[in-house]
Amino acid sequence: MTEERSLILVKPDGVLNGHIGEVITRIENRRYQIKALKVVNASKEQLAEHYNQLVDKPFYPSIEEFMQSGPIVAMIVSGKNIVETFRKMAGATNPSDALIGTIRGDFAREWDKGSIQNVVHSSDSIESAEREIKIWFPEEK
Ligand code: TYD
């Protein structure tokens, strides 16, 4: 059986505020394996594919603007239950709801206006992980 994978992004706020190392440390502390890692400037096309379930929402332009406001770090991370476990490690979507001890609870700012800025993205299912890996790592099998 192939190992479970997730697509994890450190979003522009996480990069700008210096949390790349912290996110990687938390992944390594759980003994997950980073299989690929790159710094990228997200294109509109990549973002529209990545957020295909949100692209028609009225707030999508603010997500696009935020996700293009600076470089992001994209990773393929593998290990047992990585998808479910990293979602727990990331915490709730809205930083105000994210528990202390989660990445978003510890590092995300209050959500005041525009897009929610919540430090990380992680795939919400094994199927979406494989779909998202193709968007950010087209060179990977
Ligand atoms: P979603 O997939 O619902 O959350 P998660 O990232 O926890 O899987 O939404 C994707 C991103 O879109 C979310 O991290 C932040 C942004 N977003 C907003 O800016 N405003 C909103 O009202 C929602 C629902 C999401």
From TrEMBL:
InterPro entries: NDK-like_dom, NDK-like_dom_sf, Nucleoside_diP_kinase. The keyword Kinase applies. Keywords: ATP-binding, Kinase, Magnesium, Metal-binding, Nucleotide metabolism, Nucleotide-binding, Transferase. The keyword tRNA-binding does not apply. SUPFAM superfamilies: Nucleoside diphosphate kinase, NDK (SSF54919). One of its GO terms (biological process) is UTP biosynthetic process. Its cofactor is Mg(2+). The active site is at residue 121. One of its GO terms (molecular function) is nucleoside diphosphate kinase activity. Pfam families: NDK. Residues 3-140 form the Nucleoside diphosphate kinase-like domain. Its EC number is 2.7.4.6. It comes from the Bacteria. Belongs to the NDK family. This is Nucleoside diphosphate kinase. The lineage of its organism: Bacteria, Bacillati, Bacillota, Bacilli, Lactobacillales.
